[in-house]
Amino acid sequence: MTNGFKPDQLLYGGDYNPEQWPPEIWREDVRLMQEAGVNFVSLGIFSWAKLQPGPDAAFNFGWLDEVMGLLHAGGIGINLATATASPPPWLFVQFPDARPVTWDGVRLEVGGRQLYCPSHQGFRSAVQTLVRAVAGRYSDHPALRLWHVNNEYGCHISECFCDLCGEQFRVWLRERYGDIATLNAAWGTAFWSQQYGEWAEIQPPRQAPTYANPAQQLDWRRFSSDNLLGLFELEVEVLREITPQVPVTTNFLGFLKNVDYVKWAGREDVVSLDAYPDPADPLGHVEAALQYDLVRSLGGGQRWLLMEQATSAVNWRTRNAPKRPGLMRLDSLQAVAHGASAVMYFQWRASRAGAEKYHSGMLPHVGEKSRTWQEVKALGAELRGLRPLAQMGVPTRVALLFNWENWWALEIDSKPSADLRQMPIVLKYYAALRSLGQSVDLVWPEGDLSGYDAVIVPNAYLLTAGAAGNLRAFVQRGGHLVLGAFSGIVDEHEQIGLGGYPAMLRDVLGAWVEEWLPLAPGATLGVRREDGQETQTRTWAEKLHLSGAQALAHFTGDYLAGGAAISEHAFGQGRAYYLAADFEREDIAWVLRRALLAAGVAVSDLPLELDVGVSSSQDSHVLTLLNFHRTETLHLQLPEGGHELGGAGNVAPRLDLAPLEARFVRYDRPVAPSDVHVVTSELAPV
Ligand code: GLA
Ligand code: ZN
After folding, report:
1. How many other CB atoms are found less than 10 A from the CB of residue 531?
2. What's the 3-state SS for 543-574?
3. DSSP structure string for 352-373
């Protein structure tokens, strides 16, 4: 991070694509933006073709000069795109081989967007030329606040299997392994007669007769993410040279499998995210919260920018539900509660033409008489009142460990079960933590864990020696670790640790796994918990041996009957818990509750429809309460002594939160989400 980007108010706006509209509309746009309280727009993301109409044509900046002048006069800050997101068709007449190639050998065609091979030199120099021209032209523009580099790297094209990328892959491998013998050992090429004699023999893991070497597949994922990162850095280098004073971001997609954002985030000045929770999913906001906590953590706890969301429907699901009245506001406030300092949309004005014309905008086709427009205006006004939040942090005591490499490795083919998928597992653990009233940071396997009382690891199938040492030291020093099933199995080369799983953490767990039992679809295996609760696992069970740990639950079925299903072990100053099955959220929450209480972390019992959080500065602590329930009022008990944010009024501790209602309650002392309790219906007034 070099410059940082710390607005002292909440930013509000969206992607602005004036190239889709005639100049008369631009003036109306600025007037309406002012009316809605818009103070920030992302400009020109898809304007390469308009800025550079042909390979030999002069740059066409006149229209953009005019738009930027209008925005500046209207007091609207600009997040200016480098405009490289979608190369124009002429580039592929010039360089037909700049079109990317899929796994099965198809070279993709012009006519969509984000068409490019990241390794193609002609494309890369065209990018540099464009960025240099844009940055040079606007370096001193008074409205320029931030650079929006490219757009959603990896959204459509996250890997390219062409020969140029094959060549880059070999360069990357040489750098990683130095000599071919080391690569052969790391990849285990003694298996299936795969031994390489020369670098030139190595290819990308294209479509092959059967499973490609798993270590090759894993390195390909690493390489492809790095290759895209190289493209980002190509632009950043130019920007840092020409406008060192202007901060830089590129919009992330949250949990985008093929792009390891942990490596990217440190090269930005501020992290930004595009998030599209499905309005048809009543728990879509839980997944959104996980993304928000991810990006806040990627930025080291700094506030981040919600660069895109939808005011209502998108166009890319099979059925695109609108956001019912009030939901857009709640979605937006949720991002702020989880650390966003900008609430932005795709896009300002809904398009008339093109593939996204059914995507909602801040200004719908219907115009100012639409309810969406009314909601957009009301939210703009409301965000001004939430200004104190713009510089607060989100305090946490609990961390969830996440690792892109583990995601890649777990989902490579030829596993004991194809049913163990990374994101459903992570989401279950995250939802369990939220239901216990926890604010959650995400951490990385070799990151600093010292600020946390508990670290939750839903799955760490791939565990490096460094990561295992990190977790061990955390428990040793008094930390509480919860480790999910099928963890600690392989190292960074997809090679198995021998002698009982997880080889590097057996002593920490006081337990080890002998074998795995994947369950058939629909099958269940019974489990009896220590509290007497009969429950079950679907998908997955393990034969767990105790070697010092105590059992918190036992299997009751099949040949695992009587065997431990959950273990707890005191190690050093701390404790380690292990779940030897793919449990459902309620059982996970039961273990987490026990671990958190043992760690001295208070817990509550909250419905997932309630998003509760705390934002803090030195002397002010704001409880955020958002009821995502579409039809039910929640009856809550809050800590005493709360005040309306931005007002003097006291907030009574007994609070009813209507469907889709939001409240912000300020305290002079630290509070935690677990201080909020739901009052059961019998106690609620009629
Ligand atoms: C992405 C892109 C936008 C737009 C939206 C539609 O987030 O960045 O250009 O396509 O999706 O939801
Ligand atoms: Zn390529």
Report:
1. 9
2. EEEECCCEEEEEECCHHHCCCEEEEEEEECCE
3. SSSTTTTS--SB-TTGGGSHHH
Instruction: Note whether 350 and 17 are within 8 A (CB).
Output: no
Instruction: Identify the CATH homologous superfamily for domain 610-680.
Output: Golgi alpha-mannosidase II (2.60.40.1180)
Q: Structure tokens of 501? A: 């799983």
Closest CA to 333 of 85, 677, 664, 69: 664
If pLDDT is split at 50, 70 and 90, which confidence band does 623 have? very high
How many angstroms separate the alpha carbon of residue 206 from the centre of ligand 2? Answer: 12
**Is the model's pLDDT at 239 over the cut of 80?**
yes
Q: How far apart are CA 349 and CA 12, in angstroms?
A: 14
For residue 83 the two structure tokens come to 């405009």
CATH number of this structure's domain 398-598: 3.40.50.880
Crossing angle of helices 121-138 and 214-242, in 10° steps, is 30
536 DSSP β-pair partners: 526
Q: 10 Å Cβ neighbour count for 448?
A: 11
Residue 19 to residues 61, 166, 405, Cα–Cα distance (Å): 12, 37, 40
Residue 529, SS3 per DSSP = strand
Protein residues placing their CB within 5 Å of the ion ligand 2: 117, 119, 160, 162, 164-165
Alpha helix segments (H runs only) across 204-326: 214-242, 261-265, 284-298
What is the per-residue DSSP string for 254-281? SS-TT--HHHHHTTSSS-EEE----TT-
pLDDT at 3 over 70: no
Identity of residue 630: R
Separation of CA 86 and ligand 1 centre (Å): 12
Nearest Cα neighbor of 482 from 548, 549, 529 is 549
Whole-angstrom Cα distance, residue 567 to residue 587?
13
What single letter denotes the amino acid at residue 254? G
- Active-site positions? 152, 308
Whether the bond between 502 and the residue before it is cis, its omega within 30 degrees of 0, is yes
Element (H, E) at 166: helix 163-177
User: Which ligand 1 atom sits closest to the C-alpha of 314?
Assistant: 12
Give tens-digit pLDDT for 104-152: 999 999 999 999 999 999 999 999 999 999 999 999 999 999 999 999 9
- Which residue is associated with the tokens 């919260």? 289
Cα separation, 543 vs 513, whole angstroms? 6
